[in-house]
Amino acid sequence: MKQHILELLEQSLAKLKDQSIIAADFTPRLQLDRTKDKSHGDFATNLALMTAKAAGKPPRDLAQLLIDNLPASEHIAKVEIAGPGFINFFVDDNTLANQLQAALDDEHLGVPLPESQTIVVDLSSPNLAKEMHVGHLRSSIIGDAVARALEFLGHKVIRQNHVGDWGTQFGMLLAYMEEMRAQNTEISMALSDLESFYRAAKKRFDESEDFAKRARELVVELQSGDEDCLALWREFNEISLDHCQQVYDKLNVKLTRDDVRGESSYNPDLAQVVADLEASGLLTEDQGAKCVFLDEFKNQNGDPLPVIVQKQGGGFLYSTTDLAAMRYRQNQLNADRALYFVDQRQGLHFQQVFSVARKAGFVKDGLSLEHMGFGTMNGEDGKPFKTRSGDTVKLIDLLNEAEQRAFELVKSKNPDLSEDELREIALAVGIGSVKYADLSKNRSSDYIFSFEQMLSFEGNTAPYLLYALTRVRNILRKATEAGIDASQSPIALEQEKEVELANKLAQFAEVINRLAERGTPHVLCGYLFELAGVFSSFYEACPVLSAEQTSARDSRLKLAKLTERTLKTGLELLGIKTLERM
Ligand code: ARG
């Protein structure tokens, strides 16, 4: 509908240009928004206000001219001028009903599919030396939700888990594995708790000069391709990636081992990256390190900031790997967009490496590089989330606690459910709540993690939405049990609340497109929350199964069906499992 109205406006504008009322070369940005207040129609544009000055006419006069020149459309019931010169469009109820019928008939809920692009989604990407902690939650679930939405729109999505599996800390871990071996300790046992393993290795590193020396030797051996070191390193990574996979499965994040493309995979390309930067004249040597200085990046004193690509001793850095990864995404994957779901605090890093990659010609204009940064998850004290003793919280522990709390909650509400059922519901509610609480916040802001809030049945929460969905499903189930088949009856929008619900349902495509463009799952959360609210007031005002006329009953059943599918699809795109009852 939005597209249709934009086209009508486009044509009206062209006619005004033909009549020389507006200069032929004047091209205002066409904007059409959903109205908040339905007495202003469904869509509004400020086009007349934007164009009035150039046309030398009062905005309201120009608005009238724009309206007079709009091509006739059966989809528009009424067009009005409002306030200083806004134009309001009222969509025809029949058109709206047809649009919803088309959505019901389509597995994509009537969402038009754009031209398909190849989109790399860089997500999760923990450093493998330690276990995944709460800091990895946001990257994993926000990236996953956006990836799902892009796939829903028909894009080719390539998930890349850019794990930190290469770097100096591995020397220390390998040295410790070597020691374990010498003492005949079973390594996989020792590694079953990565956190303790890391701490024990670090302790040895700090207390023994010999150990530290060996660790440094091992990094060099590893990086120069020594087979024994590589074998140990692979063993370490295997176990570490298994830990990650457990977390992804529990979180219902669509990541597998095939999506892992860690820093180490770019190792063979790093020397070439540096050589090519050298050849393009971008490299400067500064205290033995190879750097790129770009004019746009300066510190507070106005001194240029370097992007270091090779250290004095020859070692490569995080930036070098990212440059190689961009090249891979451009040349091997032929990506149109590369989206990076990484902590906002790495903003400068990404601005810098994106800029270097462009200047060096590693990526072409056709590849859009987008850092989708996110804020910090804080504890109730407003400081980064920690355990009572000040340690970082393991993600798996947090998820288990959420599940346990959900279990108590669901049990208190439904003491009669069987243990199995309770467990299933608790898993969906517990994990869903952690995810939803995060996804529903604007990703660039910090937020406070609170079990109480996320598990509440009131407000914009997972329990509220999951419960709302079970209520809609309940109505549909009863209809089926009563043998009602509404599929052949038309949707008829007569009551105010029916129109209101229909309007909300019709907005799904716009919401998904905005999410896909900006990488912001919270817009979908906000929409689903509104939809559930609108449905509930519709249901209060318009009885469904007990409607007086069969035609009204069937039409309302269809609205309920579409609400069910929209809520379910929306939650699925957020990576949240839904329930039949709870
Ligand atoms: N491993 C990094 C970290 O934990 C995040 C990597 C993000 N992705 C990237 N291409 N740099 O901070």
UniProtKB/TrEMBL annotation:
<comment type="similarity">
    <text>Belongs to the class-I aminoacyl-tRNA synthetase family.</text>
</comment>
<dbReference type="InterPro" id="IPR014729">
    <property type="entry name" value="Rossmann-like_a/b/a_fold"/>
</dbReference>
<dbReference type="InterPro" id="IPR005148">
    <property type="entry name" value="Arg-tRNA-synth_N"/>
</dbReference>
<feature type="short sequence motif" description="'HIGH' region">
    <location>
        <begin position="126"/>
        <end position="136"/>
    </location>
</feature>
<keyword id="KW-0547">Nucleotide-binding</keyword>
<dbReference type="Pfam" id="PF05746">
    <property type="entry name" value="DALR_1"/>
</dbReference>
<dbReference type="InterPro" id="IPR036695">
    <property type="entry name" value="Arg-tRNA-synth_N_sf"/>
</dbReference>
<dbReference type="GO" id="GO:0005737">
    <property type="term" value="C:cytoplasm"/>
</dbReference>
<dbReference type="InterPro" id="IPR001278">
    <property type="entry name" value="Arg-tRNA-ligase"/>
</dbReference>
<keyword id="KW-0067">ATP-binding</keyword>
<dbReference type="InterPro" id="IPR001412">
    <property type="entry name" value="aa-tRNA-synth_I_CS"/>
</dbReference>
<dbReference type="InterPro" id="IPR035684">
    <property type="entry name" value="ArgRS_core"/>
</dbReference>
<keyword id="KW-0648">Protein biosynthesis</keyword>
<protein>
    <recommendedName>
        <fullName>Arginine--tRNA ligase</fullName>
        <ecNumber>6.1.1.19</ecNumber>
    </recommendedName>
</protein>
<dbReference type="InterPro" id="IPR009080">
    <property type="entry name" value="tRNAsynth_Ia_anticodon-bd"/>
</dbReference>
<dbReference type="Pfam" id="PF00750">
    <property type="entry name" value="tRNA-synt_1d"/>
</dbReference>
<comment type="subunit">
    <text>Monomer.</text>
</comment>
<feature type="domain" description="Arginyl tRNA synthetase N-terminal">
    <location>
        <begin position="3"/>
        <end position="91"/>
    </location>
</feature>
<dbReference type="InterPro" id="IPR008909">
    <property type="entry name" value="DALR_anticod-bd"/>
</dbReference>
<feature type="domain" description="DALR anticodon binding">
    <location>
        <begin position="465"/>
        <end position="582"/>
    </location>
</feature>
<keyword id="KW-0436">Ligase</keyword>
<dbReference type="GO" id="GO:0004814">
    <property type="term" value="F:arginine-tRNA ligase activity"/>
</dbReference>
<dbReference type="Pfam" id="PF03485">
    <property type="entry name" value="Arg_tRNA_synt_N"/>
</dbReference>
<dbReference type="GO" id="GO:0006420">
    <property type="term" value="P:arginyl-tRNA aminoacylation"/>
</dbReference>
<keyword id="KW-0030">Aminoacyl-tRNA synthetase</keyword>
<dbReference type="GO" id="GO:0005524">
    <property type="term" value="F:ATP binding"/>
</dbReference>
<keyword id="KW-0963">Cytoplasm</keyword>
